[in-house]
Amino acid sequence: MPGFFKIGNNKVEFRKEPVSPELQTENWSKVEAAIQKEKSRIVWLRPMLVAASFLVLAATSIWLFVKYENQNLYLTEVKTVAGEIKRITLPDGSTVVLNANSILKVPKIWKDNGKRNVWIEGEAYFNVAKKKVTGDIFVVHTKEVDIEVLGTKFNVNTRNEQSTVALEEGKVQLALKDVASAKAGKKEEPVVMKPGEVAVVNKNDVVKLDADSTINMYSGWARNEFHFNYTSMTEVARLIQETYGYSVVISDSSLWQAKISGELRAGNIEDMARVLEVILKRKITIKNKTLVIEQ
């Protein structure tokens, strides 16, 4: 009977050849002699075989775990570049507005039942659809914290080595990623947010939770709105860099300490430059991805 084995993707056929009785007897004599010689070594081999079996079991377990994780974390990335905002509708009806220079990761296989997971780098505004029947939670993962929600509206900013969560509606729960506590077998208590609150979680898992009456200002960028409250030009320049990818050069260095307050609408870098010209009463030119504020 023919048989088969594989080398890569190629299937190779092999067949059994007939063997004479004399040759079979000679072969078995050699085998029996070899068995007697090796009996003394079996005792020493047993511990090694046991250890090897555990290694095989451990390797198999790790492989199965990695395979399972890869199946669940097989993600699609949605990216934005400087000056670009994208609006995404997820399979469950939830919507995400992705700010410039940001990345949203979602599973390629979206399950109808069970926890809904997404990952964010940069900034995004979420309007999460509530699953009334199953009550499945929606989890937004950042480097510093996992944000667990049922149905709500909130803004997430993961820039500057911290995660800022501004809650407009509903209720969210923050699960901190304290690696040191996890290794010590301790479990950090989740932080529950209420509408109108802003939570800032830094890389050391320090949480600052405050109420903010201007909660909508955090998601204003999704509506091409910018809210300034005694904001320095240094911060404005950082916002311009993050949003549009343009650097800011100021001829008069003292202007870096100028404070801006108020609301403005700017759908692009040209709109932003014209508005700042009026506020600062300085001429602004745009050249080579740079805003130059003249003296």
Radius of gyration: 31 Å
CATH topology of the largest domain: Jelly Rolls
Proportion in β-strands: 35-45%
User: What is the number of beta strands?
Assistant: 21
Distance N to C terminus: 92 Å
Walk across the major sheet and give the strand order: 3-6-7-9-10-13-14
Q: Estimate the helix proportion, in percent.
A: 25-40%
Backbone structural class: alpha+beta
User: What's the number of domains?
Assistant: 3
Per CATH, the architecture of the largest domain is: Sandwich
**Strand/helix succession:** EEHEEEEEEEEEEEHEEEEHEEHEE
> What is the name of the CATH class of the largest domain?
Mainly Beta
The averaged pLDDT comes out at: 78
Largest sheet: 7 strands, mixed
Quickly describe the structure.
This protein has 295 residues and is of the alpha+beta class. It contains four helices and 21 strands.
How would you characterize this protein structure?
There is one protein chain. The chain is of the alpha+beta class and 295 residues long. It folds into three domains: 19-72; 75-216, Sandwich (Jelly Rolls), CATH 2.60.120.1440; 224-293, Phage tail protein beta-alpha-beta fold. Helix content is 27%, strand content 36%. The protein is built from four helices and 21 strands. The chain has helices at 21-72, 179-183, 233-244, 269-280; strands at 3-7, 10-14, 75-79, 86-89, 95-98, 103-107, 116-121, 123-127, 138-141, 145-149, 153-157, 162-169, 172-176, 191-193, 197-202, 207-211, 225-232, 247-250, 259-265, 284-287, 290-293. Strand 9 and strand 10 (145-149) form a beta hairpin. It is elongated, with a radius of gyration of 31 Å. The N and C termini lie far apart (92 Å). The model is unreliable at 1-19, 56-72 and 179-185 (pLDDT under 50).
